[in-house]
Amino acid sequence: MTELIKAAVLTAVNKPLEIQEFPAPAPSTGGAVVTVAYAGICGTDIHLKSGNLPVPMPIVMGHEAVGTIAALDPALSTDINGAPLRVGDRVVWSNNIPCGRCHECLVLKERTLCKSRKIYGINRTSSDAPHLLGGMAGQIALEAGTAIIRIPDEVSFEEVIALGCAGPTALHGMLENLTIHPGDTVAVQGSGPVGLAAAIYAKQMGADQVILLGAPASRLELALEIGACDEVIDMGIYTDSAARLEKLRQMTAQERGADVVIECAGVPAAVAESLDLARPNGQVLVLGQYTDHGATPINPHYITKKQLKIFGSWGFAEAHYVKYVESLPQLRKRHDLGALLTVFALEDVNEAMDTVAAGQCTKAVLKP
Amino acid sequence: MTELIKAAVLTAVNKPLEIQEFPAPAPSTGGAVVTVAYAGICGTDIHLKSGNLPVPMPIVMGHEAVGTIAALDPALSTDINGAPLRVGDRVVWSNNIPCGRCHECLVLKERTLCKSRKIYGINRTSSDAPHLLGGMAGQIALEAGTAIIRIPDEVSFEEVIALGCAGPTALHGMLENLTIHPGDTVAVQGSGPVGLAAAIYAKQMGADQVILLGAPASRLELALEIGACDEVIDMGIYTDSAARLEKLRQMTAQERGADVVIECAGVPAAVAESLDLARPNGQVLVLGQYTDHGATPINPHYITKKQLKIFGSWGFAEAHYVKYVESLPQLRKRHDLGALLTVFALEDVNEAMDTVAAGQCTKAVLKP
Amino acid sequence: MTELIKAAVLTAVNKPLEIQEFPAPAPSTGGAVVTVAYAGICGTDIHLKSGNLPVPMPIVMGHEAVGTIAALDPALSTDINGAPLRVGDRVVWSNNIPCGRCHECLVLKERTLCKSRKIYGINRTSSDAPHLLGGMAGQIALEAGTAIIRIPDEVSFEEVIALGCAGPTALHGMLENLTIHPGDTVAVQGSGPVGLAAAIYAKQMGADQVILLGAPASRLELALEIGACDEVIDMGIYTDSAARLEKLRQMTAQERGADVVIECAGVPAAVAESLDLARPNGQVLVLGQYTDHGATPINPHYITKKQLKIFGSWGFAEAHYVKYVESLPQLRKRHDLGALLTVFALEDVNEAMDTVAAGQCTKAVLKP
Amino acid sequence: MTELIKAAVLTAVNKPLEIQEFPAPAPSTGGAVVTVAYAGICGTDIHLKSGNLPVPMPIVMGHEAVGTIAALDPALSTDINGAPLRVGDRVVWSNNIPCGRCHECLVLKERTLCKSRKIYGINRTSSDAPHLLGGMAGQIALEAGTAIIRIPDEVSFEEVIALGCAGPTALHGMLENLTIHPGDTVAVQGSGPVGLAAAIYAKQMGADQVILLGAPASRLELALEIGACDEVIDMGIYTDSAARLEKLRQMTAQERGADVVIECAGVPAAVAESLDLARPNGQVLVLGQYTDHGATPINPHYITKKQLKIFGSWGFAEAHYVKYVESLPQLRKRHDLGALLTVFALEDVNEAMDTVAAGQCTKAVLKP
Fold first, then answer.
1. Is this model's pTM higher than 0.90 or not?
2. Is domain D166-312 annotated with CATH 3.40.50.720?
3. Which residues of chain A neighbour B293 with C-beta distances below 8 Å?
4. Which CATH class is domain C4-164+331-367?
């Protein structure tokens, strides 16, 4: 008799997710079945549920997860780094599979721009077998082509899931665009998971001073506590752009502004502000503008006059996820990543989603 | 008896320039006196005259010039490249002298950001000796520290002055920021001198297809004629942004848009448009926003979504001027640079300025 | 009755190639059959025949070819750039298929380092169907995953095959490593196909002065004739390293040496010499050391003292082949690429191989 | 009556340094007089004394020093970063003054290649006033043009001098050439001051695993103790190159080798070994080949086959010294820099020099 596996399924826009059961899958050719230890809830999931970003339904949600290999197809013998894979291994995986053959994948070499990427928990319906193609479930069926990565022994499941997809997202934009030097000041706009990840990696890449601009105060305190940043500017206190600029300038040598600004706020006006916060010849990374809120007033004169460098980055591909996992042994020595987590049972998925939507926790994860 | 040298002097905002006479200067320590062959008139000169950009007055105008060494201080024996300098040599020089000792010059290594740059024809008054510190004159007194460059034998004065300061300005932004590959499409917004220089250098750096968006039609025809670009989009015909975008897409492979967009239009809205014209993961260089026209609606979602790279660049320093002169022997083989010139006598400076202000010629130069 | 297709097959080391016949193949799923117009002979083919580089035998040789689509599987509807593909289209293809899933392909993002690349004409035996997996044949069977590229209308077969695999090989190393600026001097060591391609692309990427060091005199004359370089240093005249260095210095401004040196000579001693030829802070690209000739005396003091940048590059992947084809419309306007070719009938493959081995032609190609 | 200042003077090659007395200097125009707190002894000083590197004599030695401003010319009001300077401020300075006007300084933008750099303690004789132009003295006279940097309040003199000129030297090479990512393995060859500085900065720039190859065991233990590296390979145990390579491979994921190798050993053979230690497509920085020991056998095939990137770097300029000081507040939190020091009295300079020559201490400094 086949075991049944529980999963949180979105069946219609704005409807609560349902807990459904599906037969435990067998690994497909070149694939694996993973027993999920934790599935993260991401801000994007809130957009999916509310219909802001269209998805096929019904769908097992969850594009962030970690777990243990339950079954393995014989054709799959190593992880993406060439390390042997066995049943029982603790693993994580890049949540998307670019086609690997198109102009974007091969010529532009930007797999994140591939138009036919398959993404677990985002564009894989649960209508047909193997059904379990999202992380919010007892098991997930990983297909051939998924970049599976063994988790280093000293790293816990909690530490892998703590930054969720924000970790590789920040890393992608930062590694491929920014030059951060010892002694630099980095300002991060936004204190959600992407902002926290960006702050942590700014430190990791050598910044001397990381300043986090965000809210609410409790999240900023947590950020300081785990050493994600050195200083904060509380947007609840510094409510207008000019006040924040003034405050940041005072914090930087000779009031020059930040060497690097990383926008993770998601609000269009934050980009206009980032051009002010950056020092002359500084760098700006626009990570937060995932959804289209239309045009906002921006003064392009600053781009020429200050000789700025502005970069956009979107999502991540396999390489960034590998780098993310490689960085965790060192990150965990410096930061208590586990302190970011709030754990919910899988069955409490709707409560967990509401908590995220209300900004009442830093990182919610489900434990199936 | 000392010879008298004629010069075009701005004495008050919006007043016609006066032709005044000053005693022929002797070279200062480490300096040289140059007999001017041509002085260019730049769009910036129109701004200076109208008071948009404040300058000390009275002032001998002209920040672009070429000429022949009339006198040389014994302490000055070579040009910046180490080539010997002698009276009678044909030379050109970088028009600005950064201090070379400040944070911007030495730590940021962006001499164009130096706050105490001395600029011939822009911030050097003619009140005191040696008076002749601008190019619109029979002679100019170059001080120690000026990067003087011998003009290669095969290059004429006309060819050096044809692109004026637009040549090193475009080169600065392009060399330090852009990656142009063989096969690339480069779109240039704006058909003034900076736009023409950008188009010419895009070709020189390996672009396969250079598309110039500008007006009027006569200037676009001239651009095609001298091979500055391969294709044009006439803004007199394609008057709105959507139409230009559609046209450009049709010109590019699979309608992807331009690999590189260089904004040389000077209008803030051009920057909003540049984000549309660029292909996913493309590059945008904002060269044209020299004056502050305030904020304009720009959609920052495109920066993240398309993963764009946007760079600003301002002016130039010695290295760019040297590269500019080094490139001329090759440029002149491919383009009839002299065709860009309209020559006026020094005495006709006001007529020449009016012609430039009215956009009735491509490049006006004065012959003292 | 199935048509029979002729192919040049290597059956044993150092044995002449045999002309064998195989049944005309049908396209495999996602694949295509191409009627070969020309197949190039490359220096590597000489090594394969002599056993220097081991290959599976019997094998249809030929890793460079161009042709016309004879048959197309319905699953294959566009080329790698997204352009529609139809029977009768003139095409070329990247000769190797990296696995696309390993650490090298996905994490290092260096598909040329993939250990399980399949290469037409190099590691595909003709033992089994479809047999025709090399270019020296009437037809070649291209499998799913091959990066097929439509040839632009204005470009002839002769122009595509003229640089053979040397074109994308040079482009790979140059685009990913070198910074060539207008005004730069580039020295190329070696006047074989890779050297000629490197010289042509150095010019294309903006170099003002390209100096080719090589032999014999006839090949250098051809290089000058088609504008591949501006100057030559004949190694038959300048036989020792010191003399070549002295000569090159005299050709460069202030005797500084070359801004960029591209080693395409294949002789280990050329790398020692490249460190001398480069100016202080110059760049060296080592393209020619494909085979292991062991250690040679090199003075590493120059690397520190001159602050050199030295890059190695090997082969090419899809992106470089696409860039290569994209660059041809512009290249053909500047250089008579067809002048490089010597055409042999497929049946004369052994004579053609001998001619290449003896260095008696610049680029030998077979016409099936 | 003028105060007399003691200084350690080299009067002839291989002669012990003499303690001489000079009148306390007054600041020259734009200059400062600094009371020296510590002067470092560098390996280069041993070469100077032994005549390996020629210097003008007599000379006050010492190109590394820190101290307190004793007197300040009114023309000097700020440090290089624009911070106000006052008598009593604790300062350090870049030990060399490039001319700032030559081709190397302005066009190549490599001030370290300037042929007319003035270097305190290296090419400034004590024959004439102000005599005190080296650090091994009670006071040093700094001239206009010296990049003086205020020491941040939380940083001690000991912490600034601990890495001596090795700090900015390593930083120069690393910041301008290397890309170090979170998760990377960096191998450093050589455990002298440059090696230790390179290891510390590799960690600072994000490396996960830093492996130091060197000797003697005591120095490796100290390196581990202060957290300069994560692992060591003791050259006293692993005496041949093949054994070290094997050991390093075992320490890296899938035995790929190091992502980055930094050669700080000074022995030519180390460069041959670095090509082995680096992973395919890895980076090698050659920092250690300051003196010319002639050619050594190196296999250039690896450069092409492994697609390596090899960089050379020499000395440092102002920007690197500023970055060095900016990085110290963060470095001191992570590493007990003071543990590297062995302090000698100025009068014991010859004993200190002998100790350094014998490799019996990590970093010897003089306290005047």
1. yes
2. yes
3. 301
4. alpha beta
